[in-house]
Amino acid sequence: MLSALKILYSLEEPEDNIVAQAANRLGVGEFQVFQLAHADWFGAEADAKELEPVFFRYLLHDQTDPWVRHYARRIVDLDDRGVLDTDNANYHRYDARSMRPLSRVSGLLHFVAVVVFVIVFFAVSIVAMNGVIPEPLGCLFPPCSWIG
How far apart are CA 44 and CA 34, in angstroms? Predict the structure, then answer.
């Protein structure tokens, strides 16, 4: 129990955690530091499924692979020397805001598809309820009351 609290404390204290320091200085998440470190160390983008065990080992047991520590130390060192460009798009290529937005045509098609789905859903519901609710329907919504 005490060791688990120590691990949680070390993850919350960026001064003690080089990965958290690097993430804070880059303005990205810690998982993104793992993604960036993998691409830097191995020269290829990592599959998220491939990184999950490494990241969970870091989260749960405070065990960081050497290639991640090396990358994080390099980021912290660059920032300490004042040469880290935190606005470099390369550091933010995994950010959600860097994803390509939908085009207007694509967005309009998505909107039309949702509207058509809602109309079809209500039409099918009305047809399905035909005969289930006794006639006359009267008023269904408040402030009307059911008169039976």
Answer: 12
* Residue 28 DSSP label: S
Q: How far apart are CA 84 and CA 128, in angstroms?
A: 63
pLDDT, position 85: 84
Based on its alpha-carbon atoms, the radius of gyration of the chain, rounded to whole angstroms, reads 27
- CA–CA dist 34, 60 (Å, integer): 15
Backbone dihedral region for residue 101 (phi beyond 0: left; psi -120 to 50: alpha; all else: beta): beta
Please write down the HEC assignment for all residues of 42-83. Answer: HCCCCCHHHHHHHHHHHHHHCCCCHHHHHHHHHHHHHHHCCC
What integer pLDDT is reported at residue 95 of this predicted model? 73
State pLDDT tens for residues 61-85.
888 899 999 999 999 999 998 898 8
Cβ contacts of 58 within 8 Å, gap of 6 or more: 19, 30, 34, 64, 65, 68
